[in-house]
Write a structure and sequence with these properties.
eight-stranded parallel beta barrel, 30 strands, 14 helices, Immunoglobulin-like, alpha/beta, 659 residues, single chain
């Protein structure tokens, strides 16, 4: 029997000839890097900080490590290469910059590591993941991994033309996705699909249904799966739950090759307090405000970034630009902007600190957001930024040079709340709430809006969109088709959360797959066909997307027929001839011989009808279209005598603009 070999001690591992020793005579940081970082103008910081495979001037290959910890007494890097010994491989400070740096020969791709920080604060030491790490261990493990980002992109055609695909006059129907629960493999432990598995299936699904963009809930590394990614610890790392950085690039690449844009949720508003994350990074409140009245978020029990600190601004701005450049991302949707703008957000009197003028506005956050948008549109003018901002803050989506925040778009949360509230009313009572559907047009062009029916509306006991609708099952489906038709008819870009396209019955659960089996039932498969019809009409008809953000693209025909709960309006393209009439009947009563004024005569083709049999409806409609008669109505010289199906919407296209 062979004797068991003795286990090596930590000292033996560290002192082994195979264990690399830190070299401090090698640096990959220039004086300009340090100056720009401390000044707050270094926006490619990930190329300097973090871990990088490098070759020293003497030809030695290895990995450089650099981390910002200005209040540390010492910083060490430790990992597999030294038996996880925390004190032996110390980094050296670079002047007064607060950055610690070292070069480890022989350490390469795939090496696990952390930083051990001993603070100047008495008794505080901690092990931290790399804030600039591009790849992490799968949670609940927390080490960073030395990795490269090499990838052979094949989306050149998309990148060459994406400026037109992301333009304000382009069609945008966005499919919002949580990668971990879109589809799961029940036979394999209910696991989520990998990035590469998702690439094929998601791209096929989205393209077939006619969506133009996918918006991903935060993919950045996060320790708690139930946060859906909104509690980020690894800002530069796509979650390793689904694969490597190259695997995520493959997902983006595949979507692009299918003509589908990719938008990421980005969370610069707050971060979690996990020990390995950014909080109390060097024993002090480095990334966050020290005073809890500024640095602690009561809603999410998380830390708030100190936007007034130059180095923090560099970290966040470098991160935003990194995703756009390194991963070819087409847009960033910035989460919880309202919480950034207001110092008293979700706080009672005495729980917040006014700004220097005595006001409630967070001046540092406002400055940061403006700089963020300036840098994005300067460096990546073919992308878009979108604000999730739920208040009436002015000019969110107006340029910085006119006093705006500089975003490309803003989520219209008011439209979402009012519309869902209205649709929840029993149809017999809707006439008393008519203004909930018309109020939006008072402010509809103050901003460049996206109309969101997002994940937030189908969680936490709110129920699915289908189950928000009143009536029996047939009426629920008819109401939901009507809701979607109204959204696609209204000016603004569109967003629909996954599962809503086939009328998922249960509210979304992040640890379960969508209810794909429902597509075996005609009502659900018909709903998916209806969403496909809406998407293809939205993309194919310029009048339904060209002038989404300008009042010249919309005109009420009749906003005041509250008695019958009917709304009628025109959508217009840039061509004067391009007209589409949208008429919505929000009651289950069919309206025969309903007269609608139109601006010109001729034949008006029935473009789409939510009550068509193939969409799950009763089949009531207008036999392909209606000839206008010279009978004036609603202040127009001509009119149509139409049939409005129950709980239905009909879109008519003027023959002068017929394709």
């Amino acid at each position: 029997m062979k004797p068991t070999e003795p286990t090596k001690t930590t000292d033996e591992v560290v002192n082994s000839p195979k264990t690399p020793q830190v070299r401090h005579d090698v640096s990959f940081l220039t004086g300009d890097d340090l100056h720009w970082f401390n000044e707050g103008t270094h926006f490619e910081l990930q190329q300097r900080l973090g871990s990088h495979a490098r070759v020293a001037k003497d030809g030695t290959s290895g990995t450089s490590f650099a981390v910002w910890a200005p209040n540390a007494r010492s910083v060490s890097v430790f990992g597999e290469f030294n038996g996880w010994n925390k004190g032996t491989h110390k980094l050296a400070p670079r002047g007064s910059s607060g950055i610690w740096e070292g070069f480890l020969p022989g350490v390469g791709k795939g090496t696990l590591y952390k930083y051990h920080i001993v603070s100047r604060e008495t008794g505080y030491s901690v092990d931290k993941a790399d804030p600039f790490g591009v790849f992490c261990e799968v949670a609940p493990k927390t080490a960073s991994i030395v990795w490269d980002l090499d990838y052979d992109w094949r989306d050149q055609e998309w990148m060459a033309e994406r400026a037109s695909r992301n333009a304000i006059d382009a069609p945008m129907s966005i499919y919002e996705v949580h990668l971990g629960s879109w589809r799961r493999v029940v036979a394999d432990g209910n696991r989520s699909l990998s990035y590469r598995e998702l690439a094929v299936e998601l791209a096929e699904h989205v393209k077939r249904l006619g969506f133009t963009h996918v918006e991903l809930l935060p993919v950045m590394e996060h320790p708690f799966f139930g946060s859906w990614g909104y509690q980020t610890t690894g800002y530069f790392a796509p979650s390793s739950r689904y694969g490597t950085p190259q695997d995520f690039k493959y997902l983006v690449d595949t979507l692009h090759q299918q003509g589908i844009g990719v938008i990421l949720d980005w969370v610069p508003s707050h971060f979690p307090n996990d020990d390995h994350g950014l909080a109390l990074f060097d024993g002090t409140h480095l990334f966050e405000h020290a005073d809890p009245r500024q640095g602690y978020h009561p809603d999410w029990k998380s830390a708030i970034f100190n936007y007034g600190r130059n180095e923090v601004r560099c970290f966040l701005l470098s991160n935003a630009l990194y995703w756009l450049k390194e991963y070819h991302i087409d847009g960033l949707r910035v989460d919880a902007v309202a919480s950034m703008l207001y110092l008293d957000y979700s706080r009672k009197e005495g729980e917040w600190i006014p700004n220097v003028h005595g006001g409630r506005e967070n001046l540092e956050a406002i400055s940061f957001l403006r700089k963020f948008n300036e840098e994005v549109y300067t460096r990546h003018s073919d992308t878009q930024t979108t604000a999730e901002e739920s208040t009436d803050w002015p000019m969110v989506s107006r340029p910085v040079y006119v006093g705006g925040l500089g975003f490309g778009f803003k989520w219209d949360m008011g439209w979402m709340h009012d519309t869902l509230k209205y649709m929840a009313h029993e149809p017999v009572h809707r006439k008393y709430h008519h203004n909930e559907m018309t109020f939006r047009m008072i402010y509809a062009f103050n901003e460049n809006f996206t109309l969101p029916l997002s994940h937030d509306e189908v969680v936490h006991g709110k129920g699915s969109l289908l189950n928000k609708m009143p009536g029996d099952d047939w009426q629920k489906f008819a109401n939901l088709r009507l809701l979607y038709a109204y959204m696609y008819g209204m000016p603004g870009k569109k967003l629909l959360f996954m599962g809503s396209e086939f009328a998922q019955r249960d509210e979304w659960q992040h640890d379960s797959s969508l209810q794909w089996n429902l597509l075996e039932h005609p009502a659900h498969s018909s709903m998916q066909r209806w969403v496909t019809t809406l998407n293809k009409s939205h993309s194919g008809e310029p009048a339904l997307h060209e002038i989404d953000c300008d009042g010249t693209g919309f005109e009420w025909i009749d906003a005041n027929d509250w008695e019958k709960s009917v709304l009628s309006f025109l959508r217009k393209g840039k061509s004067n001839d391009d007209l589409i009439l949208v008429v919505c009947n929000f009651t289950p009563v069919p309206r025969h011989n309903y007269r609608v004024g139109v601006p010109r005569g001729g034949f008006w083709r029935e473009l789409i009808n939510s009550d068509a049999v193939e969409h799950g409806g009763s089949g009531q409609g207008n036999f392909g279209g209606v000839e206008a008669t010279p009978i004036g109505a609603h202040g127009r010289p001509a009119s149509l005598n139409v049939t409005l199906p129950p709980l239905g919407a009909v879109f008519f296209k003027s023959a002068s603009s017929a394709s």
